[in-house]
Write a structure and sequence with these properties.
Layout lengths: L10 H9 L7 H11 L4 E4 L6 H15 L10 E4 L3 H14 L7 E4 L6 H9 L3 E4 L1 H9 L10 E4 L2 H6 L3 H10 L5 E6 L4 H10 L4 E4 L10 E7 L5 H11 L5 E4 L3 H13 L4 E4 L5 H13 L4 E4 L1 H4 L9 E4 L6 H8 L9 E7 L4 H11 L64 H11 L2 H5 L3
Parallel strand pairs: 1-6, 1-7, 2-4, 2-5, 3-4, 5-6, 8-13, 9-11, 9-12, 10-11, 12-13
Helix pairs in contact: 2-3, 3-4, 14-15
Bound molecules: adenosine monophosphate.
């Protein structure tokens, strides 16, 4: 078994890591830290929960603390992250790992007053963690200079593209100095990400921690077939029967999340929603309530869930099955953390059976079916030989063509009617193309 010392980390970092209680590097750390310390670029296929933040933060800190240029601090490491939550968590990790180093770091994101951020920038920083929109705003206002960056990290690159950030990323890349070390992390590797990686990584080491390698053994997964109209009643029943005190419910849309919170409330269950349309204050409050145990149920959309890093989640409900199989693995990984066990329920209605096929293909096994509930509906079970992807809902009201000019509140990869053929990976290039077409300022403002 490798320990952190064997990876070549310096003493101040070893002390910080040990204070965090880490004894063994995770696979992504084991594979990324040595090449990064040796100055190589790294392309990492890994999700949140694999320990990827430390995989890049530790070598960045080590390289930066080798020499500190005299005079006012200049931004020497730039980390781009798609959401505020994730950016804040990365910054919090830098704080923990740089405990014994003379390194100054700061996170900036949109949706909050820029003045405190500007003041911190004026004092001088070594490491900046940012969401793309606020970064470019402050660069344009002359508050940020990224021409001295030696280390560039693009985190959650697939989410970045889903959220329409590709042009912002390209703008940032143009402003960076040519000589620098690069790191790109993505949970998935569709061709759009591979192309982006190819455009700025040089001779990168590829580190692949695919979802199959993510340990989900400790998660008791169950699929329940039912009609859409019965989902709420089944959810309430399970929450009450199993006395769920720390559970996350995933919905496909922000509107669906809000509605469900109200419905749970009417059933006497306290819940809060977390998604990109909520203000930063509301999101922080919801997360804090959930972490402290005063709110037992968090209702989340995929994008907002990226940053939820809460130990002790006992239940995950896929109230709507995700149309991207990788999201399923990511969602259920919110439970069974830190050595604990967890239960993941998947509610599958007759329009979602194709999604289930895609998920099972990705994880390489059939998820056990629980038909012992009163709402069991055989019409939702995938047909023999059914292909992965969306099944049209014959009862769904005909929607107007929303894609062309998506109004405020579009939910990235989950809101569109794309994904008819949601097979893992193969159609993602197409979806990204369509997503890119649909990109708009409104869309971007959701999380930035
Ligand atoms: P990340 O994938 O970076 O979001 O990390 C997920 C969680 O794993 C965070 O709570 C980290 O503090 C934790 N973590 C990271 N590396 C290790 C490690 N080597 N041992 C134990 N926990 C870790």
């Amino acid at each position: 078994m490798t320990d952190f010392q064997a990876l070549g980390l310096s003493e101040p970092l070893l002390r910080a890591v040990s204070a965090e209680g880490y004894t063994t590097p995770t696979p992504v750390q084991e594979q990324s830290i040595p090449p990064l310390l040796a100055g190589r670029d790294v392309l990492g296929v890994a999700q949140t929960g694999t320990g990827k933040t430390a995989a890049f933060a530790l070598p960045v800190l080590q390289i930066m603390s080798r020499n500190r240029p005299q005079g006012k601090r200049k931004i020497r490491a730039l980390v781009l992250s798609p959401t505020r939550e994730l950016a804040a968590q990365i910054d919090e990790r830098f704080h923990a790992y740089s405990e014994h180093l003379d390194i100054r770091h700061k996170v900036i994101f949109g949706g909050v007053n820029q003045n405190p951020q500007v003041r911190a920038l004026q004092k001088g920083l070594d490491i900046l963690v940012a969401t793309p929109g606020r970064l470019l705003d402050l660069i344009n206002q002359g508050h940020i200079d990224i021409t001295h960056v030696e280390f560039f990290v693009l985190d959650e690159a697939d989410r970045m593209l889903d959220m329409g950030f590709i042009h912002d990323i390209k703008k940032v890349l143009k402003l960076l100095p040519k000589r620098r070390q690069n790191l790109l992390f993505s949970a998935t590797m569709p061709s759009s990400i591979a192309n982006l990686a190819g455009s700025f990584l040089h001779n990168a080491i590829k580190v692949d921690i695919t979802p199959k390698e993510v340990t989900v053994d400790r998660i008791d997964q169950k699929i329940m077939f039912l009609r859409k109209a019965d989902k709420r009643r089944l959810l309430v029943k399970i929450i009450k029967q199993e006395r769920v005190e720390c559970g996350i419910v995933f919905t496909r849309t922000k509107h669906g999340a809000n509605r469900l919170v109200k419905q749970l409330d009417q059933s006497g269950i306290s819940a809060a929603a977390i998604h990109g349309n909520k203000s930063q204050g509301a999101r922080t409050k919801a997360l804090a309530g959930f972490k402290s145990g005063s709110i037992p149920i968090l209702v989340a959309t995929d994008i907002a869930s990226r940053g939820i890093d809460v130990d002790g989640v006992t239940h995950v409900f896929n109230y709507d099955l995700p149309n991207e199989p990788e999201s399923y693995v990511h969602r259920i990984g919110r439970t069974a953390r830190a050595g604990k066990t967890g239960v993941a329920y998947g509610f599958c209605d007759d329009t979602e059976s194709g999604y289930l096929v895609g998920i099972q293909q990705l994880i390489g096994k059939e998820i056990p079916v629980d038909s012992s509930h009163e709402f069991h509906f055989i019409g939702a079970i995938p047909k023999p030989g059914q292909k992965p992807g969306k099944i049209k809902d014959p009862n769904a009201p005909k929607k107007k063509q929303r894609n062309r000019n998506r109004p405020k509140g579009g939910q990235g990869r989950n809101s569109g009617q794309q994904q008819r053929n949601g097979q893992s990976g193969s159609n993602q290039g197409g979806n990204n193309r369509s997503r890119n077409r649909n990109r708009s300022r409104n869309h971007r403002q959701r999380d930035d």
